[in-house]
Structures are given as structure tokens and as C-alpha cells.
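Field log, afternoon session.

UNIT: design team B
ACTIVITY: writing a sequence onto a fixed backbone
BACKBONE:
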């Protein structure tokens, strides 16, 4: 089985420099969703027919299992499939898909392939209450498909037909090659319609099967930003239903976005307006507060992420507390029981069990031991303008507020750093280290006043 994906359209109604098939749906290009469904079917070859912005599309999505055919100029869907013909094997079956129809499901396509068998032409059709804009399926007196008529060429009676063509079909490669060579462009648009092969198939006595999708939304295309937004909500609603069916608590499934893959354990709770990007794993009993963004993270069981936190490239142990307003950046690893509080940023650091940084601190390129308390306003000064250095903090260290640790520097086990310390040399274990100016008061000192009153 081979797949042809038509992805040459300009998408004028998008009013965007970005090619239509690269417009994002759930964080991935529209075409990427179609490619994913094709790959689930185990296609031997996938040919993408590109046109407007083709080099950009190819640069973004090229892969070893893809071949690319250029359609220039764009003369209709039939002409587009003709560009893929040189890449098709004579004895194969060909599935035609569209790069701007992203919700098409692999299960629906598998049923369409089954209906086609080895020698039939199979069409994916759907009945719509409002079929405006779609080609109509016209059947003969015995209920067999006779032809498809585009709306622009349809009579008033034909436009009342509710069964419409989705454009998705399966055909034997040899037959498809022959039919494409026989279609013309005698129509209002002056284009070569792929749908014209239906009449040729009927004339050749080829059986035409029809299959309906699992859900009509699978066949919806995208031609404008409004339609893109509508599909986004449909897609997210589907993800939300699946998660809730698996036991996840979503406080409001309408205010929830997954832009990648979200894996949840038991008794996970997610509050409103949370966004999950890349691959996110939430262990048993994890609670994510409102307005959080999690990207490429693995959160251990029992951990609580308080509202307005932003976690990126992070792994946590069990029973951690993060936020509110916490930020973790790639390379952050938190062991069990770690607390990261409000307005604390962690980057490329390992923090061991039961350590805490509860307020207004930056910990970058650091290795922090167990049971460490990091006071408010603490900063690891890890960058000298050209190079980055690590800070090592031993177990049971207490760091007072407003401390700067100028890396590379080590703080020994059990050490205490007094508030306001700027540490430029290693601090010995089990001792108090203080670095601050002597406090002085000046009697008789007065504040300056503005000159001239």
C-alpha cells in the first residue's frame, strides 16, 4: 500500500507567510498529523505533492520514508495526483489523502482500505446537514455510485444531495494511472478534478465502494484561521475525553491543551488553562494547578505543581512541591521531597532529597545535597560572560538570604552561610561563613534636599 498526500495549496485565506500545511494544530503542523495516520497504516511509500512553500514544507518534515513531488502550476487535484504517479508501484493500492485534513483517523482509513480490497475503488463519503462547498455523490437507481459533481458544476437538484465526497479514496495504482491520463478540464474552473475518475471507473465496470468515517469531524479541512481554531478545540476535546475516560480529573476540559503527548497515572488532577507540550509524564496522584505550562517533563507521583509554574526539560521525584510561579529549565533533576517555591528558577541542576528553595532564588549549574535550605534571594553566579561553572553544595547546608555563590565554588557538608554573603572561595564544612561589610551608623547625617526649593 502506498499513500499520496496532496499538500500543494497556498491557503490564501490564512493570510500567512507560513504554508497552509505547516499551520499548527495541537503544536504540530497540519501535515504532520496526516503523516502520522499514514504511518500507522504501515504504508510502503508516502509521496507528498508540494507546491506553494514546498521547500519550507520539505525542510520542516522531510524523513527517509517520504518522497516529494512538485506540482507547478497547480491545476487541480487530478493534476496533483498525476505528479505522484512516477513514484507509484504498478501493483500497489494507492490511498489519497490531504495535507489540510488533519483529523483523519487511522482506524477509518483501515476500514477504507479493507473496503477497497485489491481491485475496487473505495471512497470516503459523509452525509452533512449543510453540504455547501462539497462535491456531491450521485448514485444510480440501484444505489450505486455513478459520479461526483463539484458544487460549482452542480444543478440545483444535485446541490440538495447531502452525501458528499471527502476527496479521500483508495484505488489500484494501475487503474489510477490510466484514469488520470483520461480526465479533462472541461469545467468552470478549468482544472483537472480527481473526482472525474469516478465516472471513468463506472464506465470501466470497476466496483465502487463507499465508507463513512468514524466521526464526521475526521473529514474537516482547514482553509482559514477560524476553521483552524475550530479544529483545535475538537482535537483537544477528543484528548480530554480520552484522559477522563482513563480516570484523569480535568477541572474544565474546555480549558486544557495538549501539544504533544500526555501520559497520566492514577488520580491525576489538572486545573484550568494548563498547557502540555512535547512529552509529559505525570505520576500517580500528581496535582497540576491552574495556568501551568509543562514541556518535556516527568513528574513523580504525589508531586504538586502550584499555579502559574513553568516546567521545561525537568524530572522530579516523588512528593515534590513546585510553585506557585516556579520555573525549571532543561537539565533540572529534583529528587524526592524537594520544594521549589515562588519566583524560584532552576536550570541544569540536581537537587537531592528534602532540600528547599522557597523564595526568589536562582539555582543554575549546581549540585545540591540533601536537606539543604536555600534562603530567599540566593543566586548561583554561574556565568562569567564567556564560560559557565558549577556550584557544589553539600548535605545539610543552610544558606542565608541574599547570598551569592560565585562559581566554581564548593560549600562543605553542614556549612552555614550568613545572610548577605558573597562566596568567592570554598566554604568549609560545619562552619559559619560570613562575607559582608561592617555595619556602621553616622550621627548627624542628613539626607540631601533639592536645590532651589
Amino acid at each position: 500500500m502506498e499513500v499520496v498526500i496532496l499538500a500543494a495549496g497556498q491557503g490564501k485565506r490564512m493570510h500567512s507567510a507560513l504554508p497552509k500545511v505547516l499551520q499548527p494544530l495541537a503544536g504540530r503542523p497540519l501535515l504532520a498529523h496526516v503523516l502520522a495516520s499514514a504511518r500507522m497504516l504501515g504504508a510502503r511509500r508516502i509521496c507528498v505533492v508540494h507546491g506553494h512553500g514546498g521547500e519550507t514544507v520539505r525542510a520542516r518534515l522531510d524523513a527517509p520514508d517520504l518522497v516529494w513531488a512538485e506540482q507547478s502550476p497547480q491545476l487541480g487535484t487530478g493534476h496533483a495526483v498525476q505528479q505522484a504517479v512516477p513514484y507509484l508501484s504498478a501493483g500497489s493500492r494507492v490511498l489519497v489523502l490531504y495535507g489540510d485534513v488533519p483529523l483523519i483517523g487511522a482506524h477509518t482509513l483501515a476500514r477504507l482500505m479493507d473496503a477497497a480490497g485489491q481491485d475496487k475503488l473505495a471512497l470516503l463519503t459523509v452525509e452533512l446537514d449543510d453540504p455547501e462547498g462539497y462535491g456531491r455523490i450521485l448514485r444510480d437507481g440501484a444505489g450505486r455510485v455513478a459520479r461526483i459533481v463539484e458544487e460549482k458544476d452542480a444543478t440545483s437538484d444535485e446541490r440538495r444531495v447531502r452525501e458528499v465526497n471527502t476527496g479521500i479514496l483508495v484505488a489500484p495504482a494501475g487503474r489510477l494511472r490510466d484514469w488520470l491520463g483520461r480526465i479533462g478540464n472541461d469545467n468552470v474552473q478549468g482544472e483537472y478534478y480527481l473526482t472525474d475518475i469516478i465516472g471513468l471507473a463506472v464506465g470501466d465496470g470497476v466496483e465502487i465502494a463507499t465508507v463513512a468515517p468514524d466521526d464526521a469531524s475526521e473529514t474537516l479541512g482547514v482553509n482559514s484561521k477560524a476553521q483552524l481554531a475550530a479544529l483545535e478545540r475538537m482535537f483537544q476535546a477528543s484528548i480530554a475525553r480520552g484522559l477522563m475516560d482513563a480516570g484523569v480529573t480535568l477541572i474544565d476540559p474546555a480549558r486544557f491543551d495538549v501539544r504533544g503527548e500526555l501520559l497520566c497515572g492514577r488520580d491525576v488532577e489538572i486545573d484550568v488553562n494548563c498547557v502540555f507540550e512535547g512529552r509529559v509524564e505525570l505520576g500517580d496522584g500528581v496535582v497540576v494547578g491552574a495556568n501551568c505550562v509543562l514541556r518535556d517533563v516527568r513528574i513523580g507521583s504525589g508531586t504538586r505543581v502550584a499555579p502559574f509554574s513553568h516546567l521545561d526539560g525537568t524530572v522530579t521525584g516523588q512528593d515534590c512541591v513546585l510553585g506557585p510561579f516556579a520555573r525549571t529549565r532543561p537539565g533540572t533533576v529534583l529528587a524526592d521531597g524537594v520544594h521549589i517555591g515562588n519566583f524560584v528558577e532552576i536550570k541544569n541542576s540536581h537537587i537531592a532529597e528534602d532540600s528547599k528553595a522557597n523564595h526568589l532564588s536562582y539555582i543554575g549549574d549546581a549540585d545540591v545535597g540533601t536537606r539543604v535550605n536555600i534562603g530567599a534571594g540566593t543566586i548561583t553566579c554561574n556565568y562569567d560572560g564567556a564560560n559557565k561553572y558549577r556550584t557544589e553544595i553539600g548535605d545539610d547546608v543552610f544558606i542565608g538570604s541574599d547570598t551569592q555563590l560565585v562559581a566554581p565554588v564548593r560549600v562543605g557538608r553542614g556549612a552555614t552561610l550568613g545572610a548577605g554573603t558573597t562566596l568567592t572561595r570554598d566554604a568549609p564544612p560545619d562552619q559559619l561563613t560570613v562575607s559582608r561589610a561592617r555595619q556602621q551608623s553616622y550621627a548627624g547625617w542628613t539626607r540631601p534636599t533639592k536645590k532651589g526649593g
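LOG NOTE: Residues 225-245 form the longest helix (21 residues).
NEXT ACTIVITY: expression trials, pending approval
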